[in-house]
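ingest -> fold -> write
write: protein_1
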Amino acid sequence: MHRPCIRWFLLVVTFVAPQLGTAQVAPPAPSTPVIRATVAGRRIIARRTTQPIVLDGVLDEAVWATADRTGDFVQAEPVTGIPASEATEVRVLYDETTLYIGATLRERDAGGLVINNIRKDFTEGDQDSFEVLLDTFHDRQNGYVFLTNVEGARADRQIANEGRETNTSWDAIWSVKTRRTADGWVVEMAIPFRALRYDFASAPSWGINFARRIRHRNEVDFWSPVSREYNLARVSAAGTLDSIGIAATSRDLRIKPYVAARTVRDLGGTNYVTAAEGGVDLKWGIARGLTLDATVNPDFAQAEADEQQVNLTQFSLFYPEKREFFLENSGIFYVGDAARNNRISLVPTPDEDLLLFFSRRIGLDSAGHPIHIPGGLRLTGLAGGFNMGVLSMNTDRGAATPANNYSVLRIRRNIGGGSDIGMIAMSRQSLDSAGSWNRVVGADANIRFFGKLDWNSYLISTRTPGITNGQYAWRTTLNYEGKFFHGKGGVLELGDGFEDDIGFYRRTDVRKWLVDIGIRPRPEWGHALGLREMHPHFVWNYYEDTRGVMVGKNFHTGYTFFLDNGGYVELIATPRFEKIGSPFAIDPSVASIPAGDYAWVEYAVRGTTDASKPLSADYTVVTGGLWSGTQRTQQIGVQFRPDFRLSARVGMSHTEAILDLPKVAFEQMLWTVRMNYSFNTNIFLDGLGQYDPKQHVFNANVRFNVIHHPLSDLFIVYNEQRITSPVAPVTGRSLVLKVTQMVSF
């Protein structure tokens, strides 16, 4: 380890320790009393209604007055365990087809309500919001989350393995209406049972929890208490929903055909090529806990464009999956580590050294260009006490790839107390004369001890023609997540013959040792400075080959200051070492960095301002070494949101570097502009533009989306790529019109 960094870390901890205190500045008492409920083992009873419920944000039907009411929300932030600063009252009703949730959210300063976004699947962290978690199989690990804000925007997601995978692209048919009042706001939700998977025969009671965010105080409250190091995805902390007594099952059938027309001229092309096509998606609840998804000739032209990134490493960059078919129910296929602290969400957050199942390997080439998919099937859900997922898709021949079949089988069984064991099998099989194939099979276990200590391990074997040795991978980690201390340690190893054609990984023949340790003091004196929490921490990653020879290491040492307003500042020092086995080009205009050993130290400052404000910023400034030389890197983004309809963001990434091997100076710069406008909660206009002034490349993506019927869309998408140099090829352009119509039975 780097001795100066260790001394700095110990010095900072020594300074902080005497300042630690448990006293906190308590927020104001709730403005109105709510009906008391016992915190331990919280329960709420759903009352049946035969009276029609008009969804209007006014809880004026007589049956709402007879419903059980529960409240007494408890803070997770800023002070875990004390009463919420404002009263929240929740009621639950149901009829033969629908679950209804009514909530009254008091706010003495109604002008302090923050609304920053009304688009589908909005981000809740920078505004007032109300959330509902439903654990419909009461397995205390998986569930559905439904969110809304003061303007009635809708967001929904699936939770798997208590947040190890949070799927924000899952969509359900449900409705919500909200209404502002003189002393707060009111929520009225209607969630059809057929939007969920459940089985009352095996789980007559559901898990349930409610969360509320009071943004101008940066406060997070829960009905069934959740400690501040977690969020609503901590399903094991949920309360219980009792007394839903219906004979309905969770079966449903949805058919979603589409038609699409496009005209495309490639960069440097001479003519536009026009084409039209169609396809269909089918979703069928074939059993109470199982869902079959089928797709024929899927089209993903409406998927959000990838943002370009600056890459100063020898590895490929990770780009997340954005295609709807692959995202829904994706959590069942995840094999990996325990959830880390959720205060700053970076989901999806793969392990950068091995993500076993990475769906972008299906239907996209290495440059992100689409490969046609004739069709595919997926079966996911719960059967016989097992969570299971089966996926099979065919792809046509690409420019440099054969036609392939991709298949995945994932089975997992809960064994109580937040623990589970499972297995995964994956296959890529060539469908043409090439005959190539790749197989992956393995087992994993996620065991929880004492509520906060997680042990996560997997063992993987691979098979590929022509490879005889080193076809394996394994990982084991032990992770403790507490309010004050968090710590993780473990080891990952990939053999020199490991190959996973449906995974993401950066190198083989490597053993990685990892340590991640930090503390989170909340000193009383910090309130006067607007400081909520400090986080001195270090992350040590040590890489060696399977013969024990070091090939890389980094020792991230940081001190983070979390502010009361939701912003943060982090000071970082990171010594690095990399052994390069073969030359690689860090920049297209620079000669390759030769093979050899390289050691350097980076110093950085990064942070964000209050993201709930109309004007906010995020920044990262790096100085120090880079490979054989030095660097100065700045990444700055400014966001302007004058109201909840319009959002505009300008970002800049700039690096200046001087290298000794090769002897060269180079510069990289990338400008990014993103604009979003919401006409209402069903009509959106999104624009993304990126410009690389050094390479003279400009890319633009503009998408107009109308949700004309639940889960049914009209998309108009325009793309442009141009070279801005004096001698440039013809600009590439495309225009896509796509219409989907969901029909349910």
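write: protein_2
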Amino acid sequence: MLRRRFALLAVCGLLLAACGGTGTTSTTGASGSAATKASTASAAPSVLNIAYTDDPTSLDPTKTPSVSLVHSLIYDTLVVQGADLQYHPDLATSWTIAPDGKSITFDLRKDVTFSDGTPFNAEAVKFTFDRIMNPATASPGKSFLGTLTSTTVVSPYVVRLNFSAPYAPIFNSLSTDFCAIISPTAVQKEGSNFGQQPVGTGPYMLKSWLHGQSITLVRNPNYKWGPSTYYGSNTGPAQYQEIVFKDLPDENTRVLALKNNEVQISDVPATSLSVIQSDPNVQLIKTQSQGITYLGFNVSRAPWSDPKVRAAIAHLVQRTPIVQVGLGGLGVPQFTPIPTNVWGFSKSVASQEYSYDPAAAKSILESDGYTMGPGGIFSKNGKPLSLQILTYTTEPYPRVAQVVQNQIQQGGIQVSIKELESASLLALTPTGNFDSILIAYGWSDPDILYYFFDSANMKTSDRVHLNDPTINALLLKGRTTVDPTARAAVYKTLQQDLDQLAPWIPLYSTVSETGISKAVAGVQTLPNGSLLLLNAHPASGS
């Protein structure tokens, strides 16, 4: 779903890390002074346990289709986005944008080393971006770098990014872990195994990875360059000696582990909210994601290549019941591919989206040559209209898929569901051997639509295989138009066109409830739900 330091406790799917809403950074547990005092301790305390639901595909940020909290603890980026929605220094100290917008020159920190001892410098930045841009790498991050053509080392600690045309969302992209800076030495040493033995400049290092069980990170004792935008004066080594991510795909198991203090941080499903709300040892944080769960159709495969069939199905979907039944109310219905809390969303387009109208769906299908047959199922040329939905094995996806299945079946269309592990599902979509997918994304800039709908990405991230010249042109215009007003107009038109084509049926944005043990203090959160763990430490008396 794509934002740095995202509170994605479920390290899964296409929740490409989302970016923040408005507001200020908050801190759980002890006061800032207590956190400051803890940060001066000579030895970092014990272990912080966090629940997650699915193994990452890779811990190589250049090659993974999804990034997570684990990635953000291992790596740093050139810039970060603060609670003010502005971009601030991280590994870069400052930058200059050329008058024509075709280059950005970054001054870099001189006091940073990778956890393997490799110096961080302009050569490392160039190595990272050259690797992302190399077609042989097949990096999802390449799409997020837009019109980038090359990276130039100006001096040991000055690097310049060169573009063929201005690229409006570049700072958003640079702040994501897809563009995290990696150790050239480690990549050259590990080769294709780098994703299992990652090396970055972040506050934690990989200690062990037991696939399907846990990921253990150990504190980087040399870390002293945390972004002050997040941490104020507390930018030194992390407080916890280790952070253990425990793979707990079952919701009830995660909640029980949280109650028993076997994990100190976990998502809390709607079905368990009352249990956690009454627990005096756990606090809850509620946030709305900047992403969308959607039903996407493979538009290269009949009959889903027919926009009338897609429109008919769109008229059968009721978003509010999906949120209530599938999510226990923890969601916000969405009607365009850009969620309501992301810049570029068009309220006027959302109001024109296909509404729930079974009669309209029936009329569309009949006008398209379908007739109602035995069992109340539409068919054409003797073939029943049958849809298979692919989705993830982890909740709430199966639950949501069942609600969607029931709604569409009531309109005379057979629907089946097939659940796959996230890596398997994402690997399948480029083949085109599927009907539809029910998955999610998260991102803070509407340029994410280029990633999903531009035909140049057909073999990677254009999962619905849309190939439309008008859409391609709008996507390109959106990412090269720097003026915000003009750019917003482009995305309004794009939303209108996509809603009419209906390669996706947007369903909802999730509202997350994250449980944090009161035995833990100093966990900072951004309004988008991002967890900042550098200053997390045991609460006083725990």
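write: annotation protein_2
Residues 484-501 form the longest helix (18 residues).
Residues 1-27, 29-42 have pLDDT under 50 and may be disordered.
pipeline exit 0
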